[in-house]
Amino acid sequence: AQSVTQLDSQVPVFEEAPVELRCNYSSSVSVYLFWYVQYPNQGLQLLLKYLSGSTLVKGINGFEAEFNKSQTSFHLRKPSVHISDTAEYFCAVRWVGGGSYIPTFGRGTSLIVHP
Amino acid sequence: AAGVIQSPRHLIKEKRETATLKCYPIPRHDTVYWYQQGPGQDPQFLISFYEKMQSDKGSIPDRFSAQQFSDYHSELNMSSLELGDSALYFCASSLGVGGGSGYNEQFFGPGTRLTVL
Predict the structure, then answer these.
(1) Nearest of A24, A31, A38, A34 to residue A73 by alpha carbon
(2) Chain B, window 31-90: residues with a beta carbon less than 8 angstroms from a chain A beta carbon
(3) N or C terminus: fewer CB in 10 A for chain B?
(4) Beta strands in chain B (DSSP E)
């Protein structure tokens, strides 16, 4: 079965420091890739997505992610985090052409930004 | 802009009771998805509906059922509740299903937190 791995369950970082949240997936066939953010007691909000084209994708709130097909990765980065970025971040992958259009989610990474 | 509405936001039930969760999609959206997110877990897809017909099925227990009504809202019915059903239940909606190589963004509601005692 296809799988999505978020290697870090928790990432603590100081405010204004850079951060990278890692995401790897199991197969290199055609994929659509997503990052979602979940603030406490709220639903999932789409941060950014890769469908095709440039492998560097820019999203909301200053986040960006890079699709690396050979490494089957889609790591999320932000050059300078803010306290308000503290949230749970989920990577999701949809394998294209496999019959299902439902994305598979990773376990999530809790980003904790300290002052 | 209007978002996905879920009700109730919080629900407490006893074991073996039943629960009904409701989801109102964004206006004009015809597709609804249900996900279950256990404590510290990733969202697990349960079931989806497109134009009032079941379009995909995930890991939904047999004790659960769902349907989509003519106004496109959806209800998730859960019977014989177990402690392990305690979770956050998300509904998402989209315009179309984005099958094949298409893509239709899913918009998520705030979730219903179900606690089974």
Answers:
(1) A24
(2) 33, 40-45, 48, 56, 58, 90
(3) N
(4) 5-7, 10-13, 19-24, 31-37, 44-50, 53-57, 64-68, 74-78, 87-94, 107-108, 112-116
